[in-house]
Amino acid sequence: MELLQKKILKYGRVFDGNILKVDSFLNHQVDINLLTKVGEQFAKQFKAHGVTKILTIEASGIIVAAFTAQKLNVPMLFAKKTQSKNLSSSVYTTHVMSYTHGKVYDIFVEKEYLNANDTVLIVDDFLANGQALLGLIDIVKQSGAKLVGCGVAIEKGFQGGGDKLRSQGIRVESLACIDSMTDNTLVFRQ
Amino acid sequence: MELLQKKILKYGRVFDGNILKVDSFLNHQVDINLLTKVGEQFAKQFKAHGVTKILTIEASGIIVAAFTAQKLNVPMLFAKKTQSKNLSSSVYTTHVMSYTHGKVYDIFVEKEYLNANDTVLIVDDFLANGQALLGLIDIVKQSGAKLVGCGVAIEKGFQGGGDKLRSQGIRVESLACIDSMTDNTLVFRQ
């Protein structure tokens, strides 16, 4: 997606530890016109598959999911990272390793909102090692729902998570896939 | 907002500890048509005030903010609850007491995304004791930006947070304000 790649080149900043800081437009401050187009793009790519629900994980995945769900006119559902008083005891749960935060955490989805009648599109803002997507895929499996694939705004291709999922037969679409990244150069996959 | 009140009456469930569970349509699974209308309503209520930025707090506030920002055609910004590797050291920060999670936590906003040139509308999904809004208001004050008011989808009026803010001269608009709540009865403020 040319618009997203241009934004990354113009406003993205690279820091030590493979950190790509894009929080001026994607995951802290949010460029709503860009995100609306990201949602439209995923809707276009997956609309033929009868999606009934968009699944993501809090927090920044919610923005991508909201605009994708809006365009496909289906509900969205976001996995929670804390089991608050508002969750029932009847949840799907799995472990996720976060490299950004340097820890393992559990995610939760109420069973009543996802079941074998659903056809699910998973979306997220970032894909690096693929741990968050693996967690969400595990929850879809637990629910018996059909998974049509995963849509991510930015894939750090050089970290291998996306290709690992593709090698397992999972459809993964990213709108900007970065194959290499240094302080001065970003190379997108063609 | 009649549509939201109808949803609460139909799908909301009341639990001990003043918990109103609305996660079938608002803050876990999300009814996108409803939330689009929530955003349109806040845009209508505040559009005369030259809003330049929508501010909220992760996670579920993001959905309300996204659709409000879309309608007002301005960026949104969400305060973070963890200081991850992606945040710089130059942040506004303040403490927030969460009754839902039973703890105090810090929230963070990058200074470069909010300053004295901004005119800010704060939005959130819920208002109970008003602690999250107080934290966001404090961050707006630190930035020197102008605050036009706060828009919340559901206000638990009987918990007093909204009226306390109003008594301080802050404009607070809620689309469904609950004045009393038991297992069998919900009374909305007229």
List keywords for this structure.
homodimer; 190 residues; alpha/beta; Rossmann fold; 5 helices; 11 strands
Molecular structure report:
2 copies of one chain form a homodimer. Chain A has a 6-stranded mixed beta sheet with strand order 5-4-8-9-10-11, with helices on both faces. In chain A, strands 1-2 form a two-stranded antiparallel ribbon. A two-stranded antiparallel ribbon of chain A has the order 6-7. Chain A is an alpha/beta fold. The first copy, chain A, has helices at 2-11, 32-46, 61-72, 131-143, 161-167, and strands at 13-15, 19-21, 29-30, 53-57, 76-79, 91-98, 103-110, 119-127, 146-156, 172-181, 186-188. The mean pLDDT of chain A is 95. In chain A, helix 2 crosses helix 3. Chain A contains 5 helices and 11 strands; from the N terminus they run αβββαβαββββαβαββ. Chain A has a single domain (2-188), classed as Rossmann fold (3-Layer(aba) Sandwich). At the A-B interface, strand 3, helix 2, helix 3 and strand 5 of A face strand 3, helix 2, helix 3 and strand 5 of B. Strand 3 (29-30) of chain A pairs antiparallel with strand 5 of chain B.
